[in-house]
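Running this now, will post back.
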Amino acid sequence: MTELLIESLDQEGRGVARLEGKAVFVDGALPGETVSISVRKRKASYDLAQLVEVHQASPSRVVPQCVHFGVCGGCSMQHLEVRAQVAVKQRVLEDCLARIGKVRAETLLSPIVGPSWLYRHRARLSVRLVRKKGAVLVGFHERSSSFVAEMGSCLVLPQSVSQAIPQLRELVARLGICERLPQIELAVGEALTVLVLRVLEPPTPADERLLREYAEQSGFQLWLQPGGPDSARPFWPLDAPPLEYALPEYGVRIGFRPTDFTQVNHAMNRMLVRRAMRLLDPRPGERIADFFCGLGNFSLPIARSGASVLGVESNAGVVLRAEQNARMNGLAEHCRFEAADLFEPGAGARYGSCDKILIDPPREGAVELVKSLEAPRRIVYVSCDPATLARDASVLVHTQGYRLVTAGVANMFPHTSHVESIALFERGQ
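Update: finished.
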């Protein structure tokens, strides 16, 4: 065993130390701690290690609340106090902007924080029959493994779903298609919780009876998904209320399919939308583009201000649902949506000039888009990956003539290393 001083955390929540000039990444270690480690994998430029003993603990170390912590890969930072988690994420954002983008925000936004538990309203749970254990497992993957963690509950899922994990294990074990059901996807709305069962072959009549009984007993609506996400269909009950989430501050309700992308944390999403609207400051009569608009999460609050909104999204089915959401909220006259590939070179040029834009891309970022924008005076960029935000910020600042006015993090995924952030860019001055 080797004793080391942990210097920092990396973007996966691992402690980082130095040993004979090499970086050592230590699962479960925190900055400032003196620890003993066991190296489990050696690489040319770094080592991966397991924590064996903490000799001097960080004052921010806490006892993880979940009994599955350390085995389940769903959370990696429960041993770090929540406020310290947020501070680490803010440093990750600042470091990426400086190191990758060679930019620095003029001011930093206060972090957006919300519930730390019971917050995860979307999740994909893996399902596996483990013959050696004589049991079906339902849960997240084990840490750094393809194995499914043996879970009886989950503290970041809604309580109703967490409590249902043992019953789901029993249900799947009784199905004839037990070994042909690899995944259960969760989607929680205001009045409905949906479980989408990924079925690689149709359930038998006996299976269908069991599924209907479970749906009626649990109060969940069950969907079956035989192919890709668009193949998912309601199974039982068929008369369930619509799947929606609300943005009450803007008088908006957004309908969605359980396989659509929505933010996992509804409370944090409301706060993120509020901040985005404050930074964007949409005004009546302005022409504003919402790129990677999805179901209208930002488009509809922008339209509520009286601005004219163009929402662009690659998935044509999602575009249709965004249009439906605009009509449902009485905002159709202020919104136009279209399907387009925003990763194509020159993607931004085809939309002409806008007063302002909002960008909320996937992890890949939006580099082709920002390279080709026709100089809106204000850009609000919502990011789920600080590295691609930093890359795109470099283009906006060093090539397109923008200032990075402000930036900050939103703790969308407490107890994980995921960094959600938001930044404001303005031209000149």
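The chain has three domains: 2-61, 87-115+266-427, 122-188+193-236. More later if anyone needs it.
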